[in-house]
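Hey, quick one: can you model this chain's 3D structure?
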Amino acid sequence: MLKLRPATVVETLDTSADTGSRDAARERPRAGVEQRLVIELATDADAGKRREAIADVALVGRAEVGDEVIVNVQALDLGLGSGGFDVVHVNLTRGLDGGGDPSPARPHVMKLNYTSLQHAVTPVEDGAGGSLLLPLARPAAVLALHGQLAAVAWAFAQGAPGARLGYVQTEGGALPGGHSRTVRMLRERGLLAGHLTAGAAFGGEQEAITTAGALHHGLRVLGWDAAVCGPGPGIVGSSSPLGHGGMAALDSAHVALALGCPTLLVARISSGEERQRHRGISHHTLTVLDLLLEPVAVALPAGMRSPVGADLRAGLGAVFGGAMPNQPNRERRSPALEVERPARIARHDWRRASIDLPSFAASGLPAETMGRGLAADPLFFGAALAAGGALAELAGRSSSEPVDSEELQEERL
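Sure thing. Here's the predicted structure for all 413 residues.
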């Protein structure tokens, strides 16, 4: 059941609706904005308790100090790592007017449909009619985690200067498009050409009913040279192979393949993860690679032969030895990387791409996964950088000539 509580806004932590440049703001007229607040619960048992909250401005309006709000307190009460805040459900002071869109072309497709937060959008699929042209023949990368996005986008820009990379946000993590500060920063720096929210995700610059519709619109209509698909921040998860948000990558990869996109899976690989199932190449990525109906490309940092076992240990020293930014002793660790390799992952197109970890570290872009920074888990970001470089190579091929499937096959695991 919903766990809702009344509260009062006592502080607003974000003061502006958009921190981007004027040019960027003109390109993002529908970008969702998230407001950070401090609220004080008003129930007798919790009276006087102050907690952090977020409000999706596009859904519930902008709050001011003194506003009476209703907040969903479930995630914070459960102590969820990626949900350490309450979420404003409604602003009783100023959020109940429900002013509609008077224009003839008003939104008419629901997102969050049949929930109390359902709202109407105009999908990019409107007006597409018979204009579906396949194959799209432009590459798409599929993320396992949102934390990979900045590294992929940065490396893509280094490998393909001037090429346009767009982001399709899918389910699997946070659904609100305005929740990602990474996306806002990448848009402000010109490292992303656009942000579409697909399926259950909402609040991007434009809305799509499906991931297929979003990819087609971005690559065919908006003219992106490549796309990256993946969940918003956080991940829905359990310890089981199938019960986690990373499985959205399986659906996104199949969609990209069906649309004729050269498809690359951004592998989740870790040298700093304490949980056995995520050491080396994560069971999330292994499951997706095992279940895919068709082979995809997967990238490793140049110098690494394999993402598992002894080859991975040797590769860590070869790739990252002496190339790491300064790191405190408390972040140094000797990773235990015992992972067996399912035979079916050998059918995929394993590529190697050069990476520049120190330059990415100096970029100032977000570099954190599950509370670990770049120095504590270099392989996680190295794998994402390799994927961005491989995606840039695929974009160069697709812009110059049709992709030859035999030509793309390189040394396999």
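One thing worth noting: Residues 140-400 form one domain.
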